[in-house]
Specification:
- The strands form three sheets. Strands 3-2-4-1-5 form a five-stranded parallel sheet, with helices on both faces. Strands 6-7-12-10-11 form a five-stranded mixed sheet. The chain has a two-stranded antiparallel sheet with strand order 8-9.
- It starts with a strand and ends in a 12-residue tail after the last helix.
- The mean pLDDT is about 95.
- It has helices at about 20-25, 45-50, 60-65, 70-75, 95-105, 115-125, 150-160, 180-195, 225, 245-255, and strands spanning about 5-10, 30-35, 55-60, 80-85, 110, 135-140, 165-170, 170, 175, 205-210, 215-220, 235-240.
- The protein contains ten helices and twelve strands.
- It is an alpha/beta fold.
- It has two domains: about 5-110, Cobalt-precorrin-4 Transmethylase, domain 1, CATH 3.40.1010; about 115-265, Tetrapyrrole methylase, C-terminal domain (Methyltransferase, Cobalt-precorrin-4 Transmethylase, Domain 2), CATH 3.30.950.10.
- The protein is elongated and about 60 Å long.
């Protein structure tokens, strides 16, 4: 009986993998990877294969979701398989599903954790982790009515004086990545419809681009100013702070996220 080892690649490029993760890859019989659940902007398969001294087979969304990961599970039934995923394993539901399917077949599974976009972006913002409420993903509308769940989550968290972390949609196979501006435009449209005062042009928000990269961009400002701010390349993340800030959060937003001095007025 083989085993399936989920290895987190971290946030940006092939150097973000942990030493433990790299050793697991080097000792694996087969190595698979997926890159549709998140974007590692600086990652190079060729460079990684050189470092790991292993050939990597990249699988698509179809393999994991429509074929239920069978090509991976079949190999793991008789050999050691390393499955590489951006960020930290099991953050994406599809990875949990793959692990459960493997376990149901009697295949041993293990996890080697990597840096997570969740902890990275929260840390970059300077906001306190314990004050975050439910996180949410803003999806592309794709010609249909705008999904209202992201707006509702932001409104609910704000009512409880909690911060909200918003992941922005990624269509990796189409090379489409939602920007901070596109996300804010969606939410402002929903505000006009729902009128729950969850967001307006004067609201404070934090945009983060390319967490983990040397050229990471972190900017806290009013929504109207963030919509014209140049965040440049993806991936982008958006945070809506609570209505009241701890004094250390306000100071962190000013010094680390280049927020205007008026955020001190939000200290409670």
């Amino acid at each position: 009986m083989g085993e399936l080892v989920f290895v987190g690649l971290g946030l940006f490029d092939e150097l973000d993998i942990s030493l433990r993760g790299l050793e697991e890859v080097k000792s694996a019989d087969f190595v698979f990877a997926e890159f549709y659940t998140s974007l590692m902007a600086g990652f190079s398969i060729e460079n990684f294969e050189g470092v790991a001294e292993k050939r990597v087979t990249v699988v698509s969304r179809r393999v994991l979701e429509e074929e239920n990961g069978e090509p991976i599970i079949q190999k793991a039934a008789e050999a050691k398989v390393a499955f590489l995923v951006p960020g930290d394993p099991l953050i994406a539901t599809t990875h949990i599903d793959l692990r459960l399917r493997a376990e149901a077949r009697g295949i041993k599974t293990r996890i080697v954790h990597g840096a997570s976009i969740i902890s990275a972006t929260i840390g970059l913002s300077g906001l306190q982790n314990y004050r975050f409420g439910r996180s949410v993903t803003l999806p592309f509308a794709e010609g249909r009515d705008l999904p209202e769940t992201p707006y509702k989550v932001i409104a609910e968290n704000k009512a409880r004086n909690l911060h909200t972390l918003c992941f922005l949609d990624i269509k990796a196979e189409e090379k489409r990545y939602m920007t901070v501006k596109e996300a804010l435009e969606q939410l402002l449209t929903l505000e006009e419809k729902k009128k729950q005062r969850a967001i307006n042009l004067e609201s404070l928000a934090v945009g983060i681009a390319r967490a983990g990269a040397e050229d990471v961009t972190v900017k806290a400002e009013k929504v109207k100013n963030l919509m014209t701010f140049s965040f440049w390349g993806p991936p982008h993340v958006l945070i809506f702070p609570a209505g009241g800030l701890h004094f250390m959060e306000a100071e962190a937003l000013i010094r680390l996220a280049h927020a205007p001095e008026w955020v001190k007025e939000m200290i409670k």
